[in-house]
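Quick check before the chapter quiz. The format below is the same one you will see on the exam, so make sure you can read both the input and the output lines.
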Amino acid sequence: MTEPTASSSAVRRLLLVEDSAADAQILQRVLRDTGPAKVELRIVRDGQEAIDELTHQAREKTAVLPELVLLDLHLPKLGGLDVLRSIRKLPQTRHLPVIVWSTSRRDEDVRDVYQSGGNSYVQKPRDFPEYRRVIDGLLHYWFRIVQLPAP
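Here is the expected output.
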């Protein structure tokens, strides 16, 4: 017997850790135009804010963690790799799927992400149609295909 997948009517929680206002706006536009109907998007602008947000949510009994983290690699205050490592250290957050989202094509960056516990490394697309296609594919995979742990 297979496990049921999450209901398509459920609110899905996505944390975007992104210092580029333009990239954040593009994601908001894609979600508004074509994304799943019920995605609760929380945006934080730097690595330290991401850790503060997740640590607070992990410690609060009533707070609900995101189901997916979309993490820029190059962030102010605290870099994406440091954020990823911090996420993996906390028992309450170590299960969170983290997609590292970067313009970098460096093999060392890709390797470091996977060695640090990243679930995926995705290169940011350069134009809007490709951006939309990539985001649609990611959300379809992570919110409709994959069985995620219960919050």
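If your answer matched, good. Residues 1-7 have pLDDT under 50 and may be disordered.
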